[in-house]
Amino acid sequence: MKSDKYLSVITFYVVIFALSIASGYQYIGDFIEKGINSAGMFISYFVLIALFSIYKGVSLFTRKQLLFLAVFSVLITLVSYLYPYFKYSEQNPSDLMSTFSYDLVINVIVFTLLFKEARRERSQSISEQKII
Q1: Using 50, 70 and 90 to split pLDDT, how confident is the model at 17?
Q2: Cα–Cα separations (whole angstroms), residue 2 to 16, 54, 55
Q3: Rg (CA), the chain
Q4: Could you tell me how far CA 49 lies from the centroid of its own chain?
Q5: What is the mean pLDDT of the segment spanning 25-41?
Q6: Would 23 disulfide with which of 41, 52, 112, 127, CB 3.0-4.6 Å?
Q7: How far apart are CA 6 and CA 29, in angstroms?
Q8: Where are the transmembrane segments (predicted)?
């Protein structure tokens, strides 16, 4: 039973790493852009899991993990736009930045949901400590 638990989490990470690396490898850009894309895909899987766990009302992540996901998802989005913006500054930036506002709005919504869930997790842990 315990071996199934470890095998499932190892398989989970291998699949996520493989999908993230494949996405980064296929991305057109330099090594840094490919790395940013891979990191973005990697964090996106966990953000999706966190959002679905909020929907289901199940706590899968700790407060610190939720805060990390919230902050890192916004940071990786900013970096994924700002790095090419400065690297290719001689080109027309409007083409690059055309989807930035959409991504930023989505990330603000994600950040808000994860931040609220982190606060809820904190208030639950505080109330549980008071009971004990």
Answers
A1: very high
A2: 22, 27, 28
A3: 18
A4: 10
A5: 92
A6: 41
A7: 36
A8: 7-29, 35-54, 66-84, 96-115
In terms of pLDDT, which residue wins out, 68 or 88? 68
Q: Could you tell me the sign of the dihedral formed by the alpha carbons of 104, 110, 70, 32, in that order?
A: negative
Closest CA to 73 of 88, 61, 56, 55: 61
- For residue 11, give both structure tokens: 């398989």
